[in-house]
Amino acid sequence: MEGMLACLRGWHPGLALAELTALLPDATLHPEASERWVRVSGAEEHQRHEALNIASGLQCFLDHGHVVFTAESTPEDWLKEMQTYLDQHPVKGSVAVRAWKQGSKLPGWSLSNLSGRLGGLLHDMGCAIDLETPDRVLALISDGPTASLACGWMEGDGQAAFSNGERRAGERPFFKPVSLDPMLARLAVNLAAGPLGRGPVVDPMTGTGGFLIEASLSGRPSVGIDIHSEMVQGAKANLVWAHDGEAPAHAQVVRGDATRLADSLPEDWNGNVAGFVLDPPYGRNSHGSMAADRLLESCLRSAREVAHPQGGFVLILPIHPLREHTTSSLPLDHDFAPLNGEWPALLGVIERCGWTPQSAHVERVHRSLSRLILHARCVPQD
Ligand SMILES: C[S@@+](CC[C@H](N)C(=O)[O-])C[C@H]1O[C@@H](n2cnc3c(N)ncnc32)[C@H](O)[C@@H]1O
């Protein structure tokens, strides 16, 4: 099977897939052999480019991505197939081959040997090889867990524009243990708000500003709110730092109350907020303004009042660790054990506030703590 193949990256392929689904709402996505590959149809080039520019979990697209199970082929037969592939899908300009592996090596299939021989095929076809700045890159990816191999002309540079290396939470001028990792924060913003054009993003309990930094760096109009002035000052400093010393015009931090969002937002955002990213306080380090369950309910109600009809939220919730961790989404009726309150009651609160839970993912924080990442959308209005 060929067609556009999205290649996911990062620590949680299930979340990366949810993010991609949110960023390409008009596309149809079909699972492929590896949990890191997904067939994409119906996404226009500019939509794919936007996703490549802002996603946390998207590595690249492979145009005419060609996937084989190595058990069903041999390297020699595969190279013959690739010759046909290259004849059928020629490209203009200089080319290079780039190979990488996911998981363990595939016994009997040497990536360096195969990429050298692919380069040879391209050379024999008259292509100019340029390893430094090629116009097009032929990517070759092996997937250890499914013993399969994907190959195709790459869209995006495979490095992904998103890199958290330079702005890890601990490097920021204002750091607290509650600060979220940029990869998770970026993913949550995209999952909550969808494509850039849908509207602004609100982080109602911004703390050190982790979500706000990621929303603003993606070019999203965004507001971060916190009830404590120490957090407001710190998040402001972090925002300026993330934007190379200049306060961005499209993002701001304000002192306010997550339960009265309309008071803190520009008037014309009313009914237009595309996404809310919620990381409510818990534990000793991050005191809330009221009991955790009341704070969440009031915040969700307030968010619903200013949300766009297609708006969504992502809620990060500390939970007791699950017996087994998975990187796929879990059913909403799974027996999660939040640190605060009961899961079925929480689902009830979310629905009562006018939201429909969409998906739940879990990640491990440490031996005695996990995180639930819950995505919900507005209930359609009649
Ligand atoms: C867990 S922290 C958020 C951490 C944040 N995601 C980060 O990356 O730093 C929760 C924040 O909620 C704030 N908060 C508590 N009650 C609030 C309320 N009613 N309105 C706004 N902020 C509130 C706390 O001051 C705290 O900074």
CATH fold assignment of the largest domain:
Rossmann fold
The total of helices stands at: 9
- Look at the structure and give the mean pLDDT: 93
Ligands and ions found:
S-adenosylmethionine
Strand content: 25-35%
Under the CATH scheme, which class of the largest domain? Answer: Alpha Beta
Shape: elongated
Largest sheet entry: 7 strands, mixed
Radius of gyration: 23 Å
Helix content: 25-40%
Number of strands: 14
Specify the structural class. Answer: alpha/beta
Number of domains: 2
The CATH homologous superfamily of the largest domain corresponds to Vaccinia Virus protein VP39
Strand/helix succession: EHEEHEHEHEEHEHEHEEHEHEE
Q: Could you please describe the fold and organization of this structure?
A:
By secondary structure, the protein is α/β, with parallel strands linked by helices. It folds into two domains: 4-155, 2-Layer Sandwich (VC0802-like), CATH 3.30.2130; 165-378, Rossmann fold (3-Layer(aba) Sandwich), CATH 3.40.50.150. 28% of the residues lie in helices and 27% in strands. It contains nine helices and 14 strands. It has helices spanning 13-23, 45-54, 75-88, 111-124, 182-193, 210-217, 229-242, 292-306, 343-352; strands spanning 4-8, 28-31, 37-41, 58-69, 95-102, 136-143, 148-155, 201-203, 222-226, 251-255, 273-278, 307-319, 355-366, 369-378. The protein has a seven-stranded mixed sheet. Helix 1 (13-23) packs parallel to helix 5 (182-193) and helix 3 runs parallel beside helix 4. The chain is elongated, with a radius of gyration of 23 Å. The two termini are 41 Å apart. The mean pLDDT is 93. S-adenosylmethionine (SAM) is lined by residues 178-180, 204-205, 207-208, 210-211, 225-228, 231, 257-259, 279-281, 286, 288-289, 295.
